[in-house]
Amino acid sequence: MSDSLADLLGGRRGALDATVPPVVFGLVWLLANHSIGWAAGAACAVALVIAVWRGCTGGKATAVLGSLAAVAAGALVALYTGRAQDFFLIRLLSNVGSGLAWAVSILIRWPLLGVVVGTVLGQKARWRRDPDLLRAYGRASWVWVFGQYTLRSVVFALLWWSGSIWWLTVAQIALSWPLVALVLAASAIVLRRTLPADHPGLRHPRVEVPAD
């Protein structure tokens, strides 16, 4: 199930796209005598190239433009404040916001993992009418809350506060695809163990048809 979940969510591509521009920013900042201008320009240029490439290869417009906008916003913040670590501030805030959104979605019984997977599979809200799937998606979504967003938020906050561009760059790599892969695998395990042995799987919600 972990492979199918990874394929459905497209985790690797999104994680790599989000990682390359910040890494370029950190490397250019270190090599260009701590020039925020050069670093910001290089990060934006790389983000633009990735956006054009993804757009030409069938990437979703919202995801492509969102990634580009995040890099541009980070660059503008860093240029405005004159502090290189502020380039990573947008990513810190986005992880805090994402963690809160995922937690709230679980509490109101609309776990975002189910929303995302259900949308990809064209199920709309049918999965919510399957009590087993609803429970499984809820439990698996907590893996994303704590295993990804909370962990990232804490690490990025500490490194941003310390102003360590080198370690922020390293963390950007370590907490991108490697972490996403672990979270995908862990959430797939939770899904599999939560669903009954006779459940047909994510693609086939068991929706009871009310009797006439």
From TrEMBL:
What are the protein's UniProt keywords?
Membrane, Transmembrane, Transmembrane helix
Q: Where does the signal sequence lie?
A: none
Q: Domain of life, per the record?
A: Bacteria
Stretches that traverse the bilayer: 35-54, 61-80, 100-121, 142-161, 167-191
Keyword Transmembrane helix found = yes
Q: Does the keyword Transmembrane apply?
A: yes
Q: Name one Pfam family in it.
A: DUF3159
What is the protein name given in its UniProt record? DUF3159 domain-containing protein
This protein's species is: Actinokineospora fastidiosa
